[in-house]
Amino acid sequence: TGRPQRLHHHGESPTSQIQRQRPQPRTIPRMGDFHLVGYLILQRNDRVLLARRHGVSYADGHWGLPGGHVESGETFAQAAARETWEEVGVRVDPAGLAPAGMCRYVDAGVSGLDVFFTTATFEGEPQPIAECDRVAWCRWDELPEPVVPWLASALQRHLGKRVWFSEMIDG
């Protein structure tokens, strides 16, 4: 209280030095702008199931994995299982899905977290039901054209290299 404040570096107090060195605040996306998505890598022998997207706003006509947005009160595994049923008519038990990895992304102003699961245990034979017009079993390292832009690198990371977590920022 009665003690003089000690001055440092060009007559500034320690507090003013800290304030001067603080980084500028960055824009943090609101949760409503952050996509949470669960994908399923369904496996049969050395192949994965792909569905060609149809009648959708993103990547129409491109091959991708069954999956989609996590709904309120749903886990990532539950979302992957529900979307797989809705899109390709295959039932899987969310509790039996093995986590394969996840990727946080920021691309052209869109941010999110994709969580990938694998399983070889499922009921039914895949067929196009909703948001797709074809399904195919493909080698993960020999994909048909065209595929959603991130698919080849995601499969390489999570199946090939067994990378658990990755981030793709603007690209």
Give the structure's gist in a few sentences.
The chain is an alpha+beta fold. 18% of the residues lie in helices and 32% in strands.
Topology:
Blueprint: H1 14-21, E1 34-44, E2 47-53, E3 63-64, E4 67-69, H2 76-88, E5 98-107, E6 110-119, E7 132-138, H3 151-160, E8 165-169
Parallel strand pairs: 1-6, 5-8
Antiparallel strand pairs: 1-2, 1-4, 2-3, 2-7, 5-6
Strand content: 25-35%
Helical residue percent? 10-25%
- SSE order, as H and E? HEEEEHEEEHE
Count of alpha/pi helices: 3
Low-pLDDT segments, ≥5 res: none
Radius of gyration: 23 Å
Tell me the structural class. alpha+beta
What overall form do the CA principal axes indicate?
Answer: globular
Find the count of extended strands (DSSP E, 2+ residues).
8
- How far apart the termini lie comes to 54 Å
Mean pLDDT metric: 87
Largest sheet: 8 strands, mixed
Describe the structure.
18% of the residues lie in helices and 32% in strands. The chain has helices spanning 14-21, 76-88, 151-160, and strands spanning 34-44, 47-53, 63-64, 67-69, 98-107, 110-119, 132-138, 165-169. Strands 1, 2, 3, 4, 5, 6, 7 and 8 form an eight-stranded mixed sheet that branches. A hairpin with a 2-residue loop joins strand 5 and strand 6. It starts with 13 loop residues before the first helix and ends with a strand.
Give structural attributes.
3 helices; 8 strands; globular; 8-stranded mixed sheet; alpha+beta
